[in-house]
């Protein structure tokens, strides 16, 4: 499993972010000294102040008629108005996504949890993945701008190894109704605060985190190994395999398209275009 900007599986099983400014110095041109007397002889003397009673303008100056001046001003005014118009200031449209480069078509693909009248976007993520932690604020800001007909689904990848405890923790939080409230904080606890271990976390270590959201540790532990979590893990694994997801974070649009952009920002651009395509096809 290879790629750029993604969490990958490692030996634990199916498990596992500027352009330099440049400046150019201006060259200094050399100056040649000229004999002052030679310069005075070679250059005609021109009075700096016009003589009284004479027109200071050169003999070849002819004032333009009012009509001619107006003809010159009109095109200039038109150009100025165009330059300030919304059309001229508009941002160029983003290029359309290209199959094989920006996304892959999923054979016999179907949504994970279809909702009538909505387009589904699935994010396959892992709490232990640093790229997912980096992506989360961007994704949240992007989702806040999307229409109400977008059904967003987050799936914790059960890739095995040290991915499994936190995948189960996410699905347990879903069943207990605290997944959304605790989602960003879990990333922070793992990747910023270091208050939770990234590898080989036990259920007893994770339970106190959810106690901050009103979940009794005993209740969390019971949910962690309950049938609802097991079913969510099974369905997530099935969807991830069917969709060909091998890394995190990965976006899947309506179960049909797996986004394969060159960066996290590019993934959102591609996903938005594919969502618009699915919306138009309804």
Structural class: alpha+beta
Spatially, the strands of the biggest sheet line up as 1-5-4-2-3
What is the helix content? Answer: 40-55%
Please state the CA-atom Rg, rounded to the nearest Å: 33 Å
Number of strands: 5
Give average pLDDT, whole number: 80
Query: What about the largest sheet?
Result: 5 strands, mixed
Low-confidence parts? 11-47, 87-91
The count of helical stretches stands at 10
End-to-end separation in angstroms reads 34 Å
- Basic shape: globular
Strand content: 5-15%
Reading the helices and strands in chain order gives HHHEEHEHHHHHEEH
Based on the model shown, name its key terms.
single chain; 282 residues; alpha+beta; five-stranded mixed β-sheet
């Amino acid at each position: 499993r290879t790629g750029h900007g993604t969490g990958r599986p490692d030996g634990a099983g199916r498990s596992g972010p500027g352009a330099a400014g440049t400046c150019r110095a201006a060259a200094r041109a050399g100056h040649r000294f000229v004999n002052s007397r030679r310069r005075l002889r070679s250059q005609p003397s021109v009075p700096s102040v016009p003589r009284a009673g004479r027109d200071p303008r050169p003999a070849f100056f002819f004032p333009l008629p009012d009509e001619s001046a107006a003809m010159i001003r009109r095109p200039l005014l038109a150009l100025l108005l165009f330059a300030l118009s919304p059309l001229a200031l508009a941002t160029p449209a983003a290029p359309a996504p290209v199959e094989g480069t920006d996304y892959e078509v999923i054979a016999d693909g179907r949504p994970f949890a279809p909702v009538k009248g909505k387009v589904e976007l699935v994010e396959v993520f892992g709490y232990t993945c640093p790229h997912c932690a980096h992506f989360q604020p961007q994704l949240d800001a992007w989702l806040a701008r999307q229409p109400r007909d977008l059904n967003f689904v987050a799936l914790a990848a059960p890739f095995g190894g040290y991915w499994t405890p936190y995948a189960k923790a996410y699905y347990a939080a879903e069943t207990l109704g605290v997944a959304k409230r605790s989602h960003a904080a879990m990333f922070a606890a793992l990747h910023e605060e270091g208050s939770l271990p990234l590898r080989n976390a036990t259920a007893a270590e994770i339970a106190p985190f959810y106690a901050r959201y009103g979940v009794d540790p005993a209740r969390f532990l019971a949910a962690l190994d309950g049938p609802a979590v097991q079913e969510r893990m099974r369905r997530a694994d099935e969807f991830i395999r069917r969709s060909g997801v091998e890394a995190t974070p990965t976006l899947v649009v309506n179960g049909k398209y797996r986004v394969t952009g060159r960066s996290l920002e590019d993934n959102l651009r591609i996903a938005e275009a594919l969502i618009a395509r699915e919306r138009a096809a309804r």
